[in-house]
Design a protein that fits this description.
Layout: E1 10-16, E2 21-26, E3 32-34, H1 42-45, H2 56-73
Parallel strand pairs: 1-3
Antiparallel strand pairs: 1-2
C-alpha cells in the first residue's frame, strides 16, 4: 500500500434524530447526524411511521384536499340530450 494517500480511519459517533448514538469506524472526520436508525426504523420496530423531511406528504394531502373542495363547489355537469333518429333501410334490388 502506498503511504500518505489513504484517508485516516477512525471511530466516530453516529447520532440519530431519535436520540440513539452509535460508535462506528469511518473516514469521516466529525460526528455524523442521521434522520433514522435501526432503533426507530419501521422495519425493525414493526410500527408504521412516516418519515418525511421535505414535506412531500403534507403537500400531497393539501393538494388532495384542495381538489376535493373544488369538486364539491363546482356545479354538476349537465348531460346533453341526444335525439334518436329512426333509419329505415331499403332492401337492395337485384
Amino acid at each position: 500500500m502506498k503511504k500518505a494517500i489513504h484517508p485516516q480511519y477512525q471511530d466516530i459517533h453516529f447520532i440519530c434524530a431519535c436520540g440513539a448514538k452509535f460508535i462506528a469506524g469511518s473516514t469521516i472526520k466529525e460526528d455524523y447526524k442521521t434522520e433514522i436508525c435501526s432503533n426507530c426504523h419501521p422495519f425493525f420496530t414493526g410500527k408504521q411511521k412516516l418519515v418525511d423531511t421535505s414535506g412531500r406528504v403534507d403537500k400531497f394531502n393539501a393538494k388532495m384536499k384542495k381538489a376535493k373542495d373544488i369538486k364539491e363547489t363546482k356545479a354538476p355537469k349537465k348531460t346533453k340530450k341526444t335525439k334518436t333518429v329512426k333509419v329505415e333501410t331499403a332492401e337492395m334490388e337485384e
